[in-house]
Design a protein that fits this description.
The protein has helices spanning 10-21, 37-42, 60-71, 81-86, 89-102; strands at 2-7, 27-30, 50-53, 76-79, 105-108, 116-123, 137-139, 147-149, 166-172, 178-184, 187-192. β9 and β10 (178-184) form a beta hairpin. The protein has two domains: 3-116, Rossmann fold, CATH 3.40.50.300; 118-192, no CATH class. The strands form two sheets. Strands 3-2-4-5-1-6-9-10-11 form a nine-stranded mixed beta sheet, sandwiched between helices. With 209 residues, it is an alpha/beta fold.
Length: 209
């Protein structure tokens, strides 16, 4: 496989990892300290087949060693922004070569030397196609119509999930044009121009790509 940098959307990055993980593969997250696991699960990542490695306090040499070891045994390695930026250019090249040799996908949320780069930009969803993100609101006690946003809601898991319908344009730095990527209850899909969405959309992360 090799390295792919997905810039501008953590959701697309997680969905790409899930696509490569597939029904039987394994994913490793290097720098798991800041990962939103609920969002990862809703993007399709099977958390029971994820190796999460904390990296706080580790130097670049140690990170390189751990990343190389993980690439020997997983289908996809996802790096946190802190981990990716801590590694030097020559270490980028070393890990890219290792991922190609092992047939693994290396995903970075920041520019990566020698990687294919995909830039994601969020798009608004037409009103008749449903909302994008549900916000927490409360009815004002002195009005039947006024609505106020809860400033400090207590942390809790949403029973029906966070994602309704999210859409991005995804542009490949190596070629012209852009694809439209949609994430909803049916999973991750993409289309070019006016074509209908395809469920195998994030092809750059799928097996055999």
């Amino acid at each position: 496989m090799g390295a792919v940098a997905v810039i501008g959307s953590t959701s697309i990055l997680l969905a790409a990892a899930a696509r490569r993980q597939g029904p039987h593969g394994w994913c490793a997250v290097l720098g798991a300290d800041g990962i939103g696991w609920c969002a990862a699960s809703e993007s399709g990542l099977a958390l029971d087949r994820v190796l999460a490695v904390r990296t706080a306090g580790l130097d670049s040499r140690t990170l390189l060693s751990i990343a190389g070891t993980l690439l020997d045994g997983v289908d996809v390695l996802l790096l946190s922004p802190q981990c990716a930026t801590a590694l030097r250019v020559r270490e980028h090249r070393s890990l890219s070569a290792r991922s190609r040799e092992r047939g693994a996908l290396l995903l970075s949320p920041v520019p990566w030397e020698g990687a294919r780069t995909l830039a994601a930009a969020p798009q608004s969803v037409p009103p008749d196609e449903g909302g994008a993100v549900l916000a927490l609101h409360s009815v004002h006690p002195h009005s039947r119509t006024a609505v106020s946003i809860l400033s400090e809601p207590s942390p809790r898991e949403m029973p029906e999930g966070y994602l309704c319908r999210l859409r991005w344009s995804l542009r490949n730095s190596a070629g012209p044009g852009a694809s439209q990527v949609l994430l909803d209850s049916m999973g991750i899909r993409a289309r070019s121009g006016g074509a209908e969405p395809r469920s195998d959309a994030v092809a750059m992360s799928g097996r055999g790509a």
